[in-house]
Specification:
This protein is an alpha/beta fold and 226 residues long. The protein is 39% helix and 15% strand. It has 2 domains: 6-180, Rossmann fold; 188-225. The protein is built from 8 helices and 7 strands; from the N terminus they run βααβαβββααβαβαα. Strands 1-2-3-7-6 form a 5-stranded parallel beta sheet, sandwiched between helices. It has a two-stranded antiparallel ribbon with strand order 4-5. β2 (85-90), α3 (97-108) and β3 (114-120) form a beta-alpha-beta unit. α2 (64-78) packs parallel to α3 (97-108).
Length: 226
């Protein structure tokens, strides 16, 4: 366990995607995914390290996950370990002052094996990020704080992988990868829905989502056959 890399989902409300990934990696059976948020589940709405196998940090209180990730990365540096620490934060979450204290701390201590991914989807709970608190340019901000920063298309695994590789070969700074994303990406109906940060699905929502799931299943099926 001590020689592995660590991952912290600071934007804890993204838990369901995290759980799906953990299931694919064999941490628990796929059928457990269908117990999400149910009484007695090991999959609560936000990740809980005491409940879910594979979760390194309990998150959900925005701003705290990135601080924990910085602490993990610092502990590895102090003990001369080569583990990488990966952390995903939301663009709205970066309204929190605690995040920027952590970023400044990481740069000062040259935590060059720390990766911060920013999900820049331009929306948060109360509306557009630029209308709540304009974040300006994340790439410029992280550069100014002393990070090695790369901006990529958030839906491109190739671009993300290449950015990670670039970050690993530079040796002096922590790394920020700005993911240019769309909230609800992959489901056109939800992409176009303004209040898609938190919704109670209507019948129309459920119908559109179900149709997209069928399309994805067909696409995956064809890909597997190829």
């Amino acid at each position: 366990m001590g020689n592995r890399d660590y991952f912290i989902l600071s934007k804890g409300h993204g838990g369901p995607s995290f759980y799906a990934t953990l299931s694919l990696k064999g941490f628990f059976p796929e059928e457990v995914l269908y117990t999400l948020n149910q009484n007695g589940t090991i999959l609560p709405s936000h990740p809980d390290r005491n409940l879910t196998p594979g979760v390194d940090m309990t998150t959900g209180s925005l701003g705290q996950g990135i601080s924990a990730a910085v602490g993990v990365a610092l502990s590895h540096k102090l003990t001369n370990k080569e583990n990488f620490t990966f952390c995903i934060v939301g663009d709205g979450e970066l309204n929190e002052g605690q995040c920027w204290e952590a970023v400044q701390f990481a740069a000062h201590h040259k935590l060059n094996r720390l990766f911060i991914f920013v999900d820049d989807n331009k929306k948060q709970l109360d509306g557009l990020t630029k209308e709540i608190i304009d974040p300006l340019d994340f790439e410029e901000k992280f550069n100014a704080f002393g990070f090695f920063t790369v901006k990529v298309e958030g839906s491109s695994l190739k671009e993300i992988y290449e950015a990670i590789e670039k970050g690993k070969v530079q040796s002096a700074k922590p790394i920020a990868i700005i993911l240019d994303t769309v909230k609800g990406q992959g489901v056109p109906y939800l992409e176009e829905k303004f209040d898609n940060h938190h919704i109670r699905p209507s019948q129309a929502d459920e119908k559109a989502i179900s149709a997209t799931i069928v399309q994805l299943e067909n696409k995956i099926g064809k890909a597997v056959k190829l």
